[in-house]
Amino acid sequence: MSAQSQVLGVKKPARSWLRGLLLDWERTQLVITFTLMLLVAVIGLLFPSPYVLGILILATLYAYIGITWNIVAGFAGQLLIAHVIFLGIGAYTTIVLNDNFGISPWLGIPAAGLVAGLLGLLVAAVTLRYGLKADYFALFTIALLVSLRTLFLKWQFVGGALGLWLQLGNTGWGNMIFATKGPYLIIALALLAFGVIVQYRIYLSKMGKYLLAIREDEAAAAALGVNTSLYKTLAVVTGAAMAGIGGGFYVMYVAFVEPPQVFDLGFNVEIVMASPIIGGLGSLAGPILGAFVNKPLAELIRGMLAAQTSGTTLIIYGSFLVLSIMFMPRGLAGVVHSLYLRLARRWAGDGTGGS
Q1: 22-353: what fold?
Q2: What is the DSSP letter of 172?
Q3: Residue 76, SS3?
Q4: Is 257 helix (H, G, I), strand (E, B) or coil?
Q5: b or e along 185-198 (b: 16 or more beta carbons within 10 Å of the residue's beta carbon)?
Q6: Nearest to residue 287, comparing CAs of 76, 41, 59?
Q7: Using the 8-state DSSP alphabet, how is residue 179 labeled?
Q8: Is the separation of the CB atoms in 286 and 63 below 8 Å?
Q9: pTM passes above 0.85
Q10: 269-301 pLDDT, tens digit each
């Protein structure tokens, strides 16, 4: 065998592997996601200023929280509008365990996920018991948000209206308290990687197929034998538990929590809903694409218009969200998917032409 044929023999499997990757949209989205995460890590290394790292940390956290809502709303089609309640419960659980009982955040954050998951189970049980769907389900979650906000404002054990400050101990990984923001970015990226893998596994599993069937036509899915109550409950509990974990990390990063901060619809839109909607609700890469565009853009607008009349930033930001929904109904992932289809056709043509 000549040297030229050996080189061609190496190139052909490589091209076949790349072609196979590009012809699988789910894997392509996974590659896009981890490429963006790598880019965030590189930017953090090249520009380690507190301001840049702060934006990267929050953008990464927004992507993770977006994934948790995407599982519920994007996959299962459940309008859990006030999804931020689970983040709030997770934040309070972590900081109460840390301040009042001296429990490490490495244990407190998983406990936050457990408590938020139990709240998700309660939400699913109540809404299924009384047959609340679509708009009524959304209104129930909003009412629960208002109720929890009022409860935590009056509940002195969790700080009441004054909120709770994180009691800072020695800096280091053991207490998840750091003098610089670099370690927080590492933890945020690890958390996002966890969320991406869970979302991907759910999407490819039997549960994921059932959730998509429920989203498209719940009555038809039930007629085909899908236990819709079970799988909707699993979606809500999974999304709630993951959001609780995100809330635990969030409070360790910002070191403070109060009811108007975490039980707020405006905050809910910013941290939960904006990223999946801008990125593409129901897609695997949507929450990540949306978050890494949404948060830096929001900070850019806030910086440019800081001296303007109060509320101008929110008007511009809200207008951007409206325009995104109007002109990109499938989000950024839909735009990328269109480009992907063109590239996939070209690869498929090259494959047939070269055989």
Answers
A1: ABC transporter involved in vitamin B12 uptake, BtuC (1.10.3470)
A2: B
A3: coil
A4: strand
A5: bebbbebbeebbee
A6: 59
A7: S
A8: no
A9: yes
A10: 888 888 888 899 999 999 999 999 888 888 877
